[in-house]
Structure formats: C-alpha cells, structure tokens
Design goal:
The structure holds two protein chains of two kinds.
Chain A: E1 5-16, E2 19-30, E3 34-38, H1 45-52, E4 60-65, E5 68-69, H2 74-80, E6 81-84, H3 96-106, H4 112-122, H5 138-150, E7 156-160, H6 168-183, E8 187-191, H7 195-198, E9 203-208, E10 211-216, H8 218-224, E11 228-233, H9 237-244, E12 252-256, E13 259-264, H10 267-276, E14 283-287, H11 291-305
Parallel strand pairs in A: 3-8, 3-9, 6-7, 7-8
Antiparallel strand pairs in A: 1-2, 1-4, 4-5, 9-10, 11-13, 11-14, 12-13
Helix pairs in contact in A: 3-4, 3-5
Chain B: H1 2-21, H2 23-43, E1 51-57, H3 62-73, E2 77-82, H4 86-95, E3 100-104, H5 108-113, E4 119-125, H6 129-153, E5 166-172, H7 179-210, H8 212-218, H9 223-251, H10 261-285, H11 289-306, H12 318-324, H13 328-342, H14 346-370
Parallel strand pairs in B: 1-2, 1-3, 4-5
Antiparallel strand pairs in B: 3-4
Classes of the chains: A alpha/beta, B alpha/beta.
C-alpha cells in the first residue's frame, strides 16, 4: 500500500485478434500527480486505462496499480480507483441522485445519503438531483460522471477523454475540479486530445499505434523533440502551405489559427527553405515548437515505424 | 426510375453486409427453420402410441392373456408393469408414469364364458385429452378383436354376441376431456418461460448495449451479486404472472385445483429461477438485445413444442422425448398438471422436481462461468 508509485507497469501488451492495441508500454507514475495521456485516436489509450483498472486482461506485461498487482488484485484496485469512461456510462433512466446512490451502495459507503448530499453540493448538482441523467447536456453528464467516480474517495482517478464534446466553460470548470482533487492528494491520469489540457499536467505520456513515444514534462518533451519551427503570418500564408508541403526540410506544415507552422528536425535545411520563401506579404518568425507541433511530429514518426 | 433503384440497391447491400456481420442472427435464420422442420416433421405426432400401460389383473386366464397380447400388438399400449392393488395403480397414474391402468376384475373369464358381459375397466390419464383419445378410441376394437380370435377357435358358440365384454373407460382427472384443463395450467409454464427468459436475457445485454456495463464492471460487484440482484425483481414479476394465470384458471376457465397450493408455488418458484438462469446465460452470450431476443425464441420454440404443451409428449419418438426432457418446461408442466388436476403430493411430483433442480444448477453454473468480469 505504501508504494511510491501509483502506476508501475512494464511491458503492458494487449492484442485483439491480430491487431496489437497496446505494445509493451511501460508507465511509472508517482502518486499525487496529474498526468496527461495523449495520442491519436485508436492509439491504445483507452485499452491501457482499461488494463490498469482491471477491465481488460493484459496479454503480456506486469506491474502494479496503487501497489496492487494488475492481474491478481483487480478487485482491490477497483475499490480505490475512480474510472470515468469515455462514453457516458451512467444509467439514463435514473436521476442524478439515484445514480449516485447506486454507486455509493455498490462501494458500501456508510451514510451514503450524506455522502451523496455532499458530493452533489461540491459539484454544484444539488438543484438538478431529481433530473434524469439521460436528459442532461454533455457538460452536466461530465459533472455527474466525475461526481460518481469520486464518490468512494478513490486514491486515483483514471479519466478517459473526460472533456470530449464539452463546451469551453464546462471544460474549464471540469479542470478546476481536477486540480482541486489533485491538491487533496489524488493521483490523476487523464487522456485528452486538447493541448491546453495537456499543458496543465505535471507530465505527459504520449502513445501512438500502441507504442509509447515519449514521456515527461511538457517543456522537456518539447526540448527533447529536436524540432525547429517557423511561424508564418500574413495574407500570403494560404498559398504558402501547399507549396511547402513535402519539400525537403519541411517535415510538417500545419495551421494554428491563421498562422502556419512549418517544422523540421534539420535546422539548417529548414532555415534554407524558409529563406527562399520570404516576401509575398508573409511575416516569418522562428519560434519554439508548440506541444502540438511535437505531437504531429511524433505521430508522423510512429507512422513511419509501423 | 434508375436513381431510386440505385439507392434501394445501396440500402440492400448495406443490409446484407450487416446481416453477414451479425453471425448470431444469421445462424438463427438458418437454424430456426431447420429446427422447426425437424420438430414438426419428425417429432410431433398428434396420435401418440406406445403409451405406458400398467396391468392390474385379478384374473389371469388364457382369454385375459389374449386381451393383453392384443393390446400390446395394437401399438397404442406399451405394457410396462403389473400391479397388485388399486393404490399402486393409482400412484402410478398420479405421478404420470402410467397413462393407462387395465383392470381385469376377478371372475372375468367365468362371467365371459357365461355370456354375462363382464366389465373390463380402463383407467386413462385424461389430463391431456388429446394424448389419451387415440388409444381410448381404439380400445373397444382391440379387445373384441382379441376375443374374436380366441372365441372363434375355442368357444365358437359365444361368437354371435356382438360385444362379449363391456369395456369401461374411466377418463381420470379430466372426465369431460375439457382442453382448457390441460392448456391453462400449461400456459402458466409457457408464459413464465417466455417472459422470464426474455426479460433477464435483455437485462444484461441492455447494460452492454448502453455502455453502462463498463461502468458496472469498473465497480466492485461480484458476478453472482450482479446476477442475484438482477434476477430477484423478475422472480417477483413471475409470481405476479402466476397469480394472474391461476386466478384466470379458477374463475374464467373453471379449471379444478385439487392439490396443494403451497407445493404448486414451490414448483413455480423453482421453475422461475430455472428460467431466469437460462435468461442470464443468454445475456452473457448475446451482444445485443436483438440477439438476446433471438436466443430466447430459439430456446422457447422447442421447449413449447417438445414439452408436451402443444402436442402429446408420448407421441414423439424417443430422440425427441430425450431432447424434450432437457427443457425445464417439460417437467414443470407435468408437475403443475399433476398438482392441479390430479392432486399429486410432493412424493408424486418429486421425479419432476429433481430434473428442474439439476437444470437450474447447471444453467447457473454456466451463467456464472460465462459472466465476464472484464470487457475482453
């Protein structure tokens, strides 16, 4: 129980038929931190999370979650982990309160009524407690799900894309809750596609095609990527994008808002290319690559490998 | 003209692809007609023969032996045993082990020779009127043919009398041959099978279809806890159905209720649990509610056709009877008819209860074994 690491798994592998969904992934995550779990769709994030909380049996690999063996002690893990599924998975035909009470009883929480009351209060759901869960909007469903998976006072939260399809305000509120929970000592592993959310995490694990690509704090991931980025702005940008794509030195060309990011790992080649494209009402600026630049880069590399 | 066709073709293709992907449905579409054909074509026979018959002979002369031999030859009667008192005969009928008791009273041969038209008593289990009717209709002819043979040879002088023997048939348990007496208690079993299996088989698949199963599995509930928790409400539903059906049986159809209500409710409870266990097993196999529905029907059809509900059980060939014996409905029907119509006690219905217990145990084991604690 006193394990320093909340998650400590080695060589975690899962196959579905011939497809390897998760391929020898190692994760060592200390307690009390908030980690972001990133990667393209179908990269194995959900599968990994499911293996961690015992919903799927790993084909290979071993390790512990909260000090419990992921293969043998999945019941103990379930008691101490709050898992929020990607798709809303509470009962549409129960009210918010009924859902929470059901969860509370399954975890054998004493004074379930009081705990539910308190949870409703903290998450701002009290006024809606008699509403059927199925009639809630996306943001409120997320709140309910978070309320339900924190009800039993877990030591760790596994959140699978909790903010997908939720409006910016609700997303911000949701993250405030995550930070509040983390400040109380909870360990949180949250998968996401949003870069701003990733940047709020202590560390990031990036996985693509089942393989772990990189891991570490945001800054060091950017530093280690060896990527150089130029940002172009101005009216001529649109014409530029097609011209630069596929050219030697420009590995990735992508829009960020109205700006064009051109990245490459060979600084000299990239510079030469950019010098040749100056003019035409385009302002060029050398910038530190953003996390997204790095991820697009990593995704490209993973594709090459697979 | 062409473009609607194209769109129809597009939809058609999509449907075929989906049909092919859904192996379970595809399998059902092929299996249901095959099973139905096999059952209706080979198994079901509305004129059952080889009915188990018990002899109670107080007179054993050559004439009596010819009558017995004639009955055996007629293929309607399968002489299985001989009893020596009325109580024994009664018990066998009540338990449903004998369909007929042939009683030849003392002095039968003597009276026959004197031309006094002695009585030959046949007690028939008429709780299912159609099961007994064929044999009952034949019995007079069978007896007189057997006698004709003997009498022409040995005692030719007796021949002129048209019917030397008075064949008395007692249609026991349902003397007027009222079909409802048989059907209504049977319906109890059929309705319970249908709703119990369907409801539970959908209960689990609904969770997986709506995505709530993942949530349920992520929480600390053991398989048997989930199973018991899901099944118990339906036991209540089943008992309500039972009360409704029995009420209708008594007040609408006037079906007699001779036996013990407590024993009947005991059997009903056991049968409900057996059906729920089947339903739960299906719900661990089916991926969608649609498939659960199909599996329910796949189980329901043969159990209705082979249990003796629609067609006399003893009219089926041995292999079909063997399959029929697997279904809980078969044993439940016998128990219910035994208790309601014949006033059977626990001892008499025990040989219908233990197969139900066995079935329930096996189905529960399979369900627990198949219940996945993971999403694999």
């Amino acid at each position: 129980m006193t394990a320093e690491l909340a998650i400590d798994v080695r060589g975690l592998t899962k196959r579905f038929g011939k497809r390897t969904a998760v391929d020898h992934v190692d994760i060592r995550m200390p307690r009390g931190q908030v980690w972001g779990f990133l990667g393209p769709n179908g990269s194995g994030k959900t599968t990994t999370i499911r293996m961690l909380c015992g919903l799927l049996r790993a084909d290979e690999g071993e390790g512990t979650c909260l000090g419990y063996d992921i293969r043998r002690d999945s019941r103990k893990i379930k008691r101490q982990v709050g898992y929020m599924t990607q798709k809303f998975s509470f009962w549409d035909d129960l009210t918010i309160r009924e859902n929470l009470e059901f969860v509370a009883r399954l975890y054998e929480i004493r004074k379930a009524g009081e705990v539910v009351d308190r949870t409703l209060e903290t998450l701002g759901l009290t006024s809606r407690q008699t509403q059927l869960a199925g009639t809630l909007s996306g943001g409120w469903k997320q709140r309910l799900a978070l309320a339900a998976c924190t009800l039993h006072d877990p030591a760790m939260l596994l959140l699978d894309e909790p903010t997908a399809g939720v409006d910016p305000q609700a997303r911000r509120d949701f993250w405030d809750q995550i930070h509040r929970l983390a400040s109380e000592g909870l360990t949180v592993l949250v998968s996401t596609h949003y870069m701003d959310e990733a940047e709020r995490c202590d560390e990031i694990v990036y996985i693509a095609y089942g393989k772990l690509m990189t891991q570490g704090p945001v800054q060091s991931i950017i530093d280690q990527s060896g990527l150089h980025t130029y940002v172009a702005e101005g009216p001529g940008v649109r014409a530029l994008a097609d011209r630069l794509r596929g050219r030697d030195g420009a590995e990735h060309v992508a829009y960020f808002g109205s700006a064009l990011h051109v990245s490459g790992s060979d600084a000299a080649k990239l510079k030469a290319l950019i010098e040749a494209e100056r003019g035409d009402g385009v302002r060029w600026q050398s910038e530190r690559p953003s996390l997204e630049d790095v991820f697009i880069h990593l995704m490209g590399r993973a594709e090459d490998k697979s | 003209m062409i473009s609607p066709l194209r769109r129809i073709l597009a939809i058609l293709t999509k449907e075929f692809i989906q049909m092919r992907r859904d192996r379970m449905t595809f399998g059902m579409m092929v299996m249901v007609p095959i099973v139905q054909l096999a059952l209706f074509g080979f198994a079901i026979n509305a004129d059952p023969r080889h009915l188990p018959t018990v002899l109670y002979l107080e007179d054993e002369s050559p004439v009596v032996r010819s009558i017995v031999a004639g009955m055996a030859q007629s293929s309607y009667f399968d002489i299985q045993a001989q009893v020596h008192d009325q109580a024994q005969a009664e018990a066998l009928l009540q338990a449903g082990e004998a369909a007929f008791v042939v009683h030849i009273p003392a002095g039968f041969t003597r009276d026959l020779l004197r031309g006094e038209k002695p009585s030959l008593l046949i007690e028939a289990d008429a709780s299912d009127p159609s099961a007994a009717s064929g044999a009952v209709a034949q019995i007079g002819q069978v007896v007189s043919q057997a006698l004709t043979h003997d009498l022409t040879r040995g005692w030719g002088t007796l021949l002129p009398e048209a019917a030397p023997v008075n064949v008395v048939v007692h249609r026991r348990y349902n003397p007027e041959g009222i079909t409802q007496y048989n059907i209504v208690p049977g319906l109890l079993g059929v309705i319970l099978t249908m709703t119990m299996i369907m409801m539970t088989s959908m209960a689990m698949t609904r969770e997986s279809e709506r995505g709530t199963l993942e949530n349920l599995l992520a929480m600390p509930a053991r398989p048997w806890e989930v199973m018991v928790g899901k099944i118990i409400p339906y036991v209540g539903v089943g008992l309500i159905q039972t009360v409704i059906i029995l009420g209708a049986a008594a007040w609408v159809f006037g079906v007699p209720f001779i036996g013990s209500p407590v024993l009947l409710f005991g059997c009903v409870a056991l049968f409900i649990v057996a059906s729920l266990a089947v339903g739960f097993t299906f719900s661990t196999m089916a991926r969608t509610q649609m498939q659960a529905m199909q599996m329910t029907f796949f189980f329901f059809l043969p159990s209705m056709l082979l249990s003796g509900f629609m067609f006399p059980f003893r009219g089926m060939p041995d292999w079909a009877q063997a399959i029929g014996s697997v279904f809980p409905l078969t044993h439940f029907l016998r128990a219910v008819r035994g208790i309601m119509l014949k006033g059977a006690d626990f001892v008499a219905v025990w040989h219908n209860i233990w197969p139900l217990l066995l079935f329930t145990a096996v189905a529960t084991l399979i369900a627990l074994k198949r219940y996945r604690v993971t999403l694999d």
